[in-house]
Amino acid sequence: MKSGKKQNITKFRAYATIDREEVFLNEMIAQGWKPVKIILGMWFQFEKCEPGEYIARVTTCVDSRGSKACGPRREQLAEILTESGAEIIPETNLDADTRIYAVRKADLGEFEINTDIDSLIAEYTGRRRYHIICGLLLLVCFGICLFLGCSMIREYRLNPDETFHLICACIEFGCAALELLCVTVLSVPIPRYNAKLRELRDKREIQE
């Protein structure tokens, strides 16, 4: 006999950093929801579990240069995690080859993906550079859309009957606004990454 309680739910969330994603996933686990799939980095699917039954961890596989070409590195980490008893959460993100979402039973003990300082420094350096590179590319696109939008406005002023130019201008300005918003979102975590890198480098100096 069915209890009538939901066994699966989907949550929509959009975060600028995977640190916040990890917090969200563990908050859901604490409420009794295990993450089972992530779609486009925004739709998180969960199934019922015991509250606190799992621990979730998220990491990026970008290298210290911010390179996304790290399929082998991702496969290596995924294999190590699987051997330790963790489950890799399936995802359909556009940059799925640069991230790993994993869960592991809490009764297996503490669960971390990167633990040594050098690995953490490389990860946060890569994250920061990735945000900077994406932000700069979006700024270039913002400038192009702004230029095209202004060109369309000039064309419309010369030919007021050609409403097509006005529509194109509105589309270009809309794209420019969206790109500027994305640049802002990408810029927000950079100071936190800088602070984290300073903290890690200080720890490394103390250990040395």
Describe this structure in words.
By secondary structure, the protein is of the alpha+beta class. It has 5 helices and 6 strands; from the N terminus they run βαβββαββααα. It has a 3-stranded antiparallel β-sheet with strand order 1-3-2. A 3-stranded antiparallel β-sheet has the order 4-6-5. α3 packs antiparallel against α4 (163-187). The chain is globular, with a radius of gyration of 22 Å. The chain starts with 7 loop residues before the first strand and ends with a helix. The mean pLDDT is 83.
Topology:
Layout: E1 8-12, H1 18-30, E2 33-39, E3 43-48, E4 54-60, H2 71-83, E5 87-88, E6 99-105, H3 117-158, H4 163-187, H5 190-207
Antiparallel strand pairs: 1-3, 2-3, 4-6, 5-6
Helix pairs in contact: 3-4, 3-5
Offer a concise description of the structure:
The chain is built from five helices and six strands; from the N terminus they run βαβββαββααα. With 208 residues, it is of the alpha+beta class.
| SSE arrangement, N to C | EHEEEHEEHHH
**Overall average pLDDT:** 83
What structural class should be given to the helix and strand makeup?
Answer: alpha+beta
Gyration radius, rounded: 22 Å
Helix content: 40-55%
Tally of separate helices: 5
Counted beta strands: 6
Largest sheet: 3 strands, antiparallel
Q: List the uncertain runs.
A: none
Distance between the termini: 62 Å
